[in-house]
Design brief:
6-stranded mixed β-sheet; 6 helices; 29% strand
Amino acid sequence: MNSTFKAACGQFQPEFGETAKNIRRMTKIVRAVQADLIVFPELCTSGYELRNREEVRSLALNIDSSEEFRLLKSLAKEMNSHIVFGFPEISGSKLFNSSALIEPNGTVTPYRKLHLFDREKNIFDPGEEVPPVIDTAIGKIGLMICFDWIFPEVARSLALRGSQIICHPSNLVLTFCQRAMFARSVENGVFTMTCNRIGSETRTDRTLTFTGASQILSNRGVTMAQASPDSEEVISAEIDLSQAVNKMITAKNNLFEDRRTEMYTSLWK
């Protein structure tokens, strides 16, 4: 396995309710950037400000049967790309704010958002499974979504299970996340890719403005690429995932081996 590859974030403004059009936008970006790994924003197939569960259901995708997944699986194979994107998911009677990693071989691994933000709690069911770490041809990829950033346990659990890079589709409206992801990278010794959207949505009694500034950070917190706060653009970087295997901070300090887990028992009470 070659540990060095091209990673990219496709920052754009999804058109609310226009799933087919948004998929076409994503397809155009994937073909243009020709990256080994490309991450798109949270809920980028639908738009963010869904009013109720009925509206979620009307725009939700089923991983096994939706035409959109067939198209994206074909695209991943055609371009030999690993594609991560956010979408509303329907599974039985449940509705999730989900992301998925599609590998070139057609494998699809979903993640259902654990930590729902604000009014998401009114329309989505919370995820019930541990965020996945996927052993792919380019390395070990972990998945989290947007507001998961504020809970350091998510990134830590991914890193402890071997993730070398964390893909983080987002629809950020708070101003803290991009800075906080510096800490998630440094404290875990992993690369992180936060792909945010831009633009505003006014579909209820409020206007949400998204902060853009998608970023790719190294395992030492170095900003390898960052987008503007308000323009559609693709950012990319060459990543060497072998660097994320080394957890040494000094000759005598290891990020994981130096943890005093016996002192943290209150975290589990």
